[in-house]
Amino acid sequence: MTAIAASAAPLAALRRFVRPVLADRRGVQLIEFAIGLPILTTLSLGGAEITNYATTRMRISQVALQLADNAARMGNGTLLAAKTITENDINDALTGAGQQAGNLDLYKRGRVIISDLEPMANPNTDKKYKIVWQRCRGDKTSHASSYGVAGATNISGIGGKSKFNAQDDNATMFVEVYYEYKPLIRTALSPSTTMVEIAAMSVRDRRDLTGGDKGVYNTANAPVSRC
């Protein structure tokens, strides 16, 4: 009996110590906050990252669309004559794209490619096309066009699965914008750091497709943004 009583004494002492600890509710909210803070922080930062990524991608898409529209409208000439385009016209359009991108640093983090798509023949009964010229700008020179290069012929169109084409005796301006996105917080959960947006517009007015260097004049000796 003495041995049993001796072994029960520590157990009783432990119970006396644990019972008030379990009944004490002080610090419960602090512990709950400490447990929930990492989850709340992850959700908040993840939401901010996804929002920033979606906004950036939308802006890049708008740059591609606006540049294609500007490239389709550029040219000089009267209403009665086919309009001519120059290297200055192309350079101005590319500069405008950089201004539109604003603080995205488009030409430091990306590359913009304009392609001139024209039919192989007129009438184009075979529905085959060619990329007559391309102009590029941006520091990411390692990125070549994913949709064809200047000089490509007998292609069925340009632009991946949903191919764009050109009307007879006309051209289509196809724009590809490659951009390397910089996450707010670089983690394994961050979205893809590269994005590519495309857009295409048919040339608005009748354009001279034969003069100059494959349809592009350079009478002012302007820099040529070749790819």
**How would you sum up the global shape?**
rod-shaped
Uncertain runs are: none
How many strands in all?
6
Main sheet, how many strands, which sense, barrel? 4 strands, antiparallel
Number of domains: 1
The tally of helices reads: 4
Structural class: alpha+beta
Distance between the termini: 97 Å
Strand order of the largest sheet: 3-2-4-5
- Average the pLDDT over all residues and give the rounded result: 87
User: How much helicity do the residues have?
Assistant: 25-40%
Secondary-structure element sequence? HHEHHEEEEE
Radius of gyration from CA coordinates: 32 Å
Strand residues, percent: 15-25%
Protein name: TadE-like protein
Organism: Sphingomonas rubra
Features:
227 residues; alpha+beta; 4-stranded antiparallel sheet; 4 helices; 38% helix; 18% strand; rod-shaped; TadE-like protein
Q: How are the SSEs placed, and which strands pair?
A:
Elements: H1 2-23, H2 28-73, E1 85-86, H3 87-101, H4 106-109, E2 110-119, E3 129-137, E4 172-180, E5 194-202, E6 216-217
Helix pairs in contact: 2-3
